[in-house]
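Entry type: protein chain
Record version: 2
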Amino acid sequence: MKNIYKISGKITLFFYLLFLYQAWHLCQYGGVRRHLLILILGVLGFLISFIFWLVSRRQKREDNSDYKMKKRVFGIEIIIVLISTIYFGGRIVYSAVPYHGALSWKIDELMREKKVSFVHNNFFEDGAEGVLTDLDEALTLPEELYITDSFQMTFDETGTIQTLETFIYGRDAKGEEKTYLVNYDADQDEKMSVWIDGVARADYDEDMRLEPMLRILQEADCEQQVEAWSKNRGTDIYELLYYGRRSFSQAEGLQYLPGDVDGDNADNGIRNFVQLSSGGEVVGFEVSLYIPTAEDVTPIRCIMEPEYISQEKLNEEQESVQADDAKDTENWTIDNSNGTMYFFLDDSIGWRLVVTDAAAGSRYYEMEKTVDGGTEWEKINTDPFLGTPGVTEGLVFFDEKFGVAGLTGASQSASRLYITRDGGESFTQLQLPVDMVTELPAIAEKYGFTAEDYDYCNMPEKEGDTLTIEVLTEAGENEGIVFQSNDGGETWVYGHANN
């Protein structure tokens, strides 16, 4: 009995420490399945060994031999228990602090997740309003709701909703912001899961209001469209997708619906809608109905009260965006939609090479200048490359007068540089002193290159007062001939061969 008393005390302490450690690890990192068995083992081991310790201690109470030693050992064990309890208990409490452990997320989930009964779960019978009706009954939604990204819902041919996903927000009657992350999957749960009061990108953008979606769906005959699809295809899952206000440059799949979504009690949408055939784009609140598994079926895009934007207006907006991008970089930029090349010396003064004609991979350009940051552009040169067709290779100005423009062919095997000293009003082709070259790169001997084969000029780079141009056999090579100028490009001398 004496040995049982000694061993059971140590075993009890071991299982207690094991339980504390596993409890902390679970709270900090999660993983119930991974820790459950060890936690149960720790609890059972602690209880059994503790019972043995109590029974053996009662029977050994009369034994006073080594009383001081036993008291000292018992005191040490009590200290270990206290220190361990304080340490691991503190760590468990810390794991409950927001964002510091799995326990904090679990507490947050228990406090914020709500299960909402989904009664109005048939889209054909209850519309999308049915979803909001059930949410409002359980959570009291704000009157004006917005989406952070989209409202996405699937349903079957009978209209029974299968899945739902959206993040909506708004301000309640007290002006407090309320958010609702809504998820529903009929295969997983008969109720909607709603996480409330989360962090949302709540910018209250009028283009992201939820009310227009409800108005569009009231006018759209989704049931009839689904019935037509199901007759041809059989059973399918259908999806509704709402992104708020969107733009469209093509009329394919677009269906105009009469209605007022901007609150001005006037509907001018049909006049704007028909103008899309003239180019440009229409912008309006739109809801898409489509079959996710059928890429060959054109989605139906219901749009209400669209605004028409002409192609000229779109071009102006694109130019403004491109100019802003060009001002943010120290190099030239290209508008890939039309091939225009931009360069800004500062936030106000800039130049651009605009394509005037194109044929067989080559283009002709004219030069324009702005002094107000790109709001207005003035044509200053109708032929900066002196009648030579090609593709712009670069554009850079070192001050308001001195600049260089590059032109290459479609194959990029050769290029030319053109210099201006009057702010772009006139250009002359740069002639480098190739006859001064005394050494070619090592690769020249291998391929039989001569100095005349080096005819692709990189754009000049400036460091201090020195301009440097590297000349290659073609674009992309890394071994070439270097020419330099210390007088602003007036004269050039051979520098060396780059190997």
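Comment: The radius of gyration is 38 Å.
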